Amino acid sequence: MDSLEHLITRSIKTYYKNKLYAPIIFLVILVVLAIVFPVGHLLVPQLYEEDQISLSEMYNSNKNYARFDLKNLYFTGYTSKWLDRTRGYYYYTMINSECVVVLLDPNTCEQGAPTIEELNIKGEIIYDSVAARTLLGNLANDLNWNEDGILSTVSSYSISEPDATGFAAVAFQTFYIIFGIYSLASIVVYCLYIAFPVLSLPVQKTRAYGKPAEILAEAEEELATLPQLATEDMFITEHYFIETSSYGVAIVPIDSIIWIYKYSTMHKFLWHHFSITYTLYITAGKRHYIKCPKNIKSDIDGIIDYLSEANHDILVGFSEENRLKVEEIQNDFAVVRKITGFLSKRV
Q1: CA angle at residue 50 from 49 to 53, to 5 degrees?
Q2: Of 20, 44, 62, 252, which has the highest C-beta tally within 10 A?
Q3: How far apart are CA 243 and CA 235, in angstroms?
Q4: What is the DSSP letter of 78?
Q5: Distance from CA of residue 309 to its chain's centroid?
Q6: How far apart are CA 201 and CA 199, in angstroms?
Q7: Which DSSP category does 347 fall into?
Q8: Where are the beta strands (DSSP E) in 83-132?
Q9: Dist CA 86 CA 111 (whole Å)
Q10: What digits encode the pLDDT tens for the residues 118-141?
Q11: Is residue 79 within a helix (H) or strand (E), and if so which, with residue range?
């Protein structure tokens, strides 16, 4: 009996402690990515100030992404293509007395304007770009210049706007932020549930039947003093069905249960059958659904028999007839009927 003291509260805490591992691991992965790669500068790029730092210094400091105020850009006549789509237009400009190749997004440069007087872009600093070297080689041939000569006069660092603002970069930033917020929010919420189990979802779902704190206290008291039936992780007290498994925690008033049935699952690997487990499904009022997986047949049969005796209004077994009765009791299509009724009147 001592082991049943505050069992629901302890199970809620254990359940959410186990759920903490995933968001914590994911958050650690995001932090490692931010340390190894310049994620911070991609998300919040600093303004490049050419009088204070050079492109090479920024690149070597792993500050590959920045915002650039560029002036007097000239179109080279060359473009960058990807799968027959123009990815960007190559320009050149002077930065810190160096000629720098800049790849601009088609929309930024208005599809290759000959000259651009002033421009502010977000770009990635790229060292010894193969595309930039190929461009300069072709440009040298067009102008009848020496390729080594033109390479020596142009900076080895180039700036690419599409690499910082293209689909891949935007998708990475979006998912990184979403997953980061989700991980942090999950950790905060789970810690809150661990500290205050009455605020957790399993308890708050009982709001449909009364005050969650009072229902939790009553269920805890009944479970600790006189459980009517007990399996490994399912219990029946005078007024409640309680689940405390590693798959979830649930508290349901017996008089609110509408439908119960079991479902069997065969576990096998290749041609070898290992075992059969059974899942108990419970439908309660206010669209409250409980799933108790991986139980043995005798435990579930005992639970079903006891509940059906305790509440003769419970529908037992899965059948189309029972499904339709539950659908009618729950009034599942009330919203659809209202919409179709409204539309038919309008028509």
Answers
A1: 85
A2: 252
A3: 6
A4: E
A5: 43
A6: 7
A7: -
A8: 85-95, 98-104, 115-127
A9: 9
A10: 999 999 999 988 888 888 888 778
A11: strand 65-82
